[in-house]
Design goal:
heterodimer; A: 3 domains; B: alpha/beta; Amidase signature (AS) enzymes; Amidase (chain B)
């Protein structure tokens, strides 16, 4: 391979979680039946005017604060002019030379090495509608095409990175970090598979030591974090091969195919669009006040990195567990909620990472819509500590019931007769029966093989269907066997 | 009856001397007799109008929610959206377009109880100064049927001048209310940019467009402006400032009013007839106690060029949506998307609209943007500053509304540049965003001449006052 380094920059589009569209009051629900969430404004009827959705600005400012960006005192919407049937006005309202925020960064970690990736800008724009083609998979050659404007003018936030990314792995780490952050601060669902987060990648290579960038290509159609990495690996390799063979890279847009795991140029004739950007005269500049920004700052809350450190330091949770829990904002909140009524964060963390995650996976459920409440988990863990429930019963019977939606632990215990047997008399009589029926093992124990004790414990647990208190059983057995 | 003003008719309506239905029917009778010559209207809405008149009569009878416009017949320029009624912009591309909503101004007119007679002709998409650019019909000047009514609100001006409506709405991007008012001998007011909501006005040049009244006298213009004006959350460029009671500003005492005469608009390019009428008007102001001075706007000479970069640039983008996809004309000849776009727009737009789209597209193109569009924005700022400076020493500025009286139909049709120059006095006002009114101030060969009075931003009161004082002391507005 040639002595080249790879330069990658990512342009990310995030669908904002607002209730209404970017410039009108229509619901931001584009999954609904076609053309049900539309109005004169978002279908580009003559004479209509856009009105900025304040919530969308708020969410973008929130993102800017969470990514260390500088929020511009004055930013301007601009028209990006091009004709296409999914764009009702035949221009897209976007931002151009004066974006909402600039000059931020995200810190990523790859193989234990931390690195800052610069964020060039964050801006707001409107999405286009959706076209459905009959008789072909695109408009060219189709019998006819249908337009659904439910998605037209829904809010999009574009986050552009600096060309600071050097490997496809870093690109993947950046995307994961960004997605996690956006989901965490509640501005976007951030699911690449569902399209709520989309990514275009610019990639070029240059000889190590050279300052100027090489010719870049733009990669589209990557629908998962993994695909981002694979596509960039494939394209990186293609660039190197072309250059090694003495060829030149053509600046173009290429599409990644999940099937072939390769990128493919779409146009034979490359023409550069002239979008004729100019300031949107129907809107006034955005000038967020300092007070408003400070109000929004309060809603950002603790960011994942900080939270992770706190869990490790204050709660004594392992780094792996802390990372696992914090990577799901709901789980992190769940942990903190549970500690309010059960003061053993480490134990809670163990259950979250271990039993609860396993049980959810087994029943094909996700943490996002978990039926278990923090109070229930706290109650269950306390019952285990108090010896009312055995760990085994809690894990195998109570937890699955709670995850299915049962709302009373006491109810489950009563219904299934799960109370731990701590009554000495009852346990003594069970232990004695077992000793009587296993003389061989009694001999072994008496001859000094103390490990056989665990055989007897197991038998008692079996006889009580796990309801016996293991500590009490051991004590009783030891005494009975010595007799 | 129909030659009366709205405020006179209001008195008759509340005194029950006439009914609104009666008035509407009289207007439609007049339309029947003169419309074949004038051709002011694209669409007449008689059935709806009679219903609105009946509702108005009920309001008048019950004396509930009676406004100065209740029961008054009004014409709406056909670039303002009306729910369920054609809104064509006088373009073939929208010849079949029925808007699904009412413009804010139309809503306000309906709420006030006025009676909408129909939709008036204009230069296609309001691009022009003679209404000859209408893609649908030619409107004639009621004062001389061989002449143009001015434009682009030529249909509205002609309708009011010919008593085919008592009042009319117009829109003004570079003079489209004031110049036709001047040509037809009536009153037209362009409010401050942001004073009246543009929601529902089919955009020509968003940063310049403004809706305003066309009326038979200053009082009527004030009454109609009162109803139109006000902040609208649907228009982000409308400004949230209080709307004063405009009728209160209609006083004849203008002693000490500082009137600035724009030097650049009293020289070359202004016809002798017009110049002498304006000079007489200035003399009249002096008689009435105003203090006259001469002011200069050095950036003035660049106004028309600046306008013809900014307005077409915005128009090229605003008119992109007429693509045959969603509404309006769609070419039946096309086999694919690109030819559908090409053919639809080729068939749907007229020559002047195409000329401006091409001009605007060019001005915004990569490599030309800085030299044209951006430079034009900078000159616009200079023009604005010149007006601010002049108006810091004067209460109002005056000039002719148009360099000439109404010209003959066809006279300038093949000379776009000379047509563009007919807006030389009105264009700078739109670039500066300030309010201006045109009132009749003289005649030349029985053709009316308009005086333009300009004021400070959001100070429509002072120009109304200056206009009213002149009107009350002259009788040019009564000449037919």
């Amino acid at each position: 391979m040639s002595k080249h380094e790879t330069i990658i920059g990512l342009e990310v589009h995030a669908q904002l979680k607002t209730s209404s569209k970017m410039f009108c009051g229509c619901a931001n629900n584009f999954g609904d039946p076609p053309n049900t969430n539309i109005c004169p404004v978002c279908t580009g009827q003559p004479g209509t005017l856009p009105v900025i959705n304040k919530k969308a600005i708020e969410l973008a400012i929130k993102t800017a604060l969470a990514t260390n960006c500088k929020i511009n005192e004055r930013s301007v919407f601009a028209r990006k002019n091009y004709f296409y049937p999914d764009l009702p006005k035949d221009f897209q309202i976007s931002q151009f030379d004066l974006p909402l925020a600039e000059h931020g960064f995200l810190e990523i970690e790859v193989d234990g090495n931390k690195k800052r990736i610069g964020i060039t800008r964050i801006h707001l724009e409107e999405d286009a509608g959706k076209l459905v083609h009959k008789g072909a998979d695109r408009i060219m050659g189709s019998d006819y095409s249908l337009a659904d404007y439910n998605r037209a003018a829904t809010p999009l936030m574009e986050i552009v990175s600096e060309p600071d990314i050097r490997t496809p792995e870093e690109a993947k780490a950046y995307m994961e970090k960004l997605a996690h952050l956006l989901e965490y601060i509640g501005v976007c669902d951030a699911k690449m598979e569902e399209g709520s987060l989309r990514c275009d990648a610019n990639i070029s290579i240059r000889p190590v030591g050279q300052k100027e960038f090489g010719t870049k290509t733009e990669i589209k159609n990557m629908n998962s974090f993994k695909a981002v990495m694979k596509a960039l690996k494939a394209e990186e390799l293609r660039h190197r091969e072309v250059i090694d063979e003495g060829g030149t890279i053509i600046q173009e847009t290429r599409f990644y195919s999940e099937e072939t795991e390769k990128t493919k140029g779409m146009r034979t004739k490359e023409f550069s669009h002239d979008y004729r950007y100019f300031p949107e005269p129907d809107l006034v500049p955005i000038a967020p006040t300092k007070e408003w920004i400070e109000e929004i700052r309060k809603t950002v809350g603790e960011l994942p990195d900080k939270k992770e450190n706190r869990f490790i330091k204050d709660y004594g949770i392992s780094e792996t567990d802390a990372f696992f829990i914090v990577s799901n904002s709901k789980m992190a909140t769940f942990l903190e909620e549970t500690t309010k009524s059960y003061n053993n964060p480490k134990a809670i963390a163990n259950w979250l990472v271990g039993e609860i995650t396993a049980c959810l996976k087994e029943s094909k459920m996700t943490f996002d819509n978990i039926a278990l409440s923090p109070n229930q988990l706290a109650e269950m863990l306390a019952l285990i500590d108090n010896g009312v429930l055995s760990r085994k019963v809690a894990k195998e019977i109570v937890l699955p019931e709670l995850l299915k939606g049962s709302n009373s632990i006491q109810g489950i215990i009563k219904e299934k007769g799960l109370t731990q047997i701590s009554d000495e008399g009852e346990l003594v009589s069970i232990a004695q029966d077992i000793i009587r029926n296993n003389p061989k093992q009694v001999e072994q124990f008496k001859s000094g093989k103390e490990a056989v004790l665990m055989f007897f414990v197991g038998q008692v647990m079996k006889a009580t269907k796990g309801r016996a208190n293991p500590d009490a059983v051991q004590k009783i057995l030891k005494e009975a066997l010595k007799k | 009856m129909i030659d009366k003003t709205a405020h006179e008719l209001h008195d008759l309506l509340i005194k029950k001397k006439i009914s609104s239905v009666e008035l509407a029917e009289k207007v439609f009778l007049r339309i029947e007799s003169v419309e074949p010559q004038i051709k002011a209207y694209i669409t007449l809405t008689k059935d709806e109008a009679i219903k609105q008149a009946e509702a108005a009569d009920k309001r008048l009878k019950e004396n509930k929610n009676v406004t100065l416009l209740t029961g008054i017949p009004i014409a709406v320029k056909d670039n303002m959206c009306t729910k369920g009624i054609l809104t064509t912009c006088a373009s073939k591309i929208l010849a079949n377009y029925i808007a699904p909503y009412d413009a804010t101004v139309v809503t306000k007119l309906k709420e006030a109880g006025s009676v909408i007679i129909g939709k008036t002709n204009l230069d296609e998409f309001a691009m022009g100064s003679s209404t000859e650019n209408s893609g649908l019909q030619i409107t004639k000047n009621p004062r001389d049927l061989e002449r143009v009514p001015g434009g682009s609100s030529g249909g509205s001006a002609a309708a009011v001048a010919a008593n085919e409506a008592i009042l009319a709405t117009g829109s003004d991007t570079g003079g489209s209310i004031r110049q036709p008012a001047s040509f037809c001998g009536i009153v037209g007011l362009k409010p401050t940019y942001g004073r009246v909501s543009r929601y529902g006005l089919v955009a020509f040049a968003s940063s310049l467009d403004q809706i305003g009244p066309l009326a038979k006298d200053v009082t009527d213009a004030a009454i109609l402006l009162q109803v139109m004006a006000g902040y609208d959350p649907k228009d982000s460029t409308s400004v949230n400032v209080p709307v004063p009671d405009y009728q209160k500003s209609l006083t004849t005492n203008i002693k000490g009013l500082k009137v600035g005469v724009i030097k650049e608009l009293m020289g070359e390019g202004i016809s002798a007839d017009v110049k002498s009428a304006i000079k007489s008007a200035i003399k009249k102001y002096e008689e009435l106690g105003a203090v006259i001075s001469e002011v200069s706007l050095p950036s003035f000479e660049y106004a028309v060029s600046t306008y013809y970069l900014i307005a077409p640039a915005e128009a090229s983008s605003n008119l992109a949506r007429f693509d045959g996809v969603k509404y309006g004309h769609r070419s039946q000849e096309a086999k694919d998307l690109i030819t559908m776009y090409y053919n639809t727009r080729r068939e749907g737009f007229g020559a002047e609209v195409k000329r401006r789209i091409i001009l605007g597209t060019y001005a915004l193109s990569a490599g030309y943007y800085d030299a044209y569009y951006l430079k034009a924005l900078k000159v616009r700022t200079l023009i604005k500053q010149d007006f601010e400076k002049a108006l810091s020493n004067c209460d109002v500025l005056v000039s002719p509304t148009s360099p000439t009286v109404a010209f003959k139909i066809g006279e300038k049709a093949n000379d776009p540049l000379s047509m563009y120059l007919s807006d030389i006095a009105t264009i700078p006002v739109n670039l500066a965003g300030i309010p201006a009114i045109s009132i009749p101030c003289g005649n030349a060969n029985n053709l009316p001449i308009g005086l333009q009075i300009m004021g400070k931003a959001f100070d429509e009161e002072t120009i109304l006052k200056a206009a009213y004082a002149f009107e009350q002391n002259t009788d040019w507005h009564l000449k037919k």
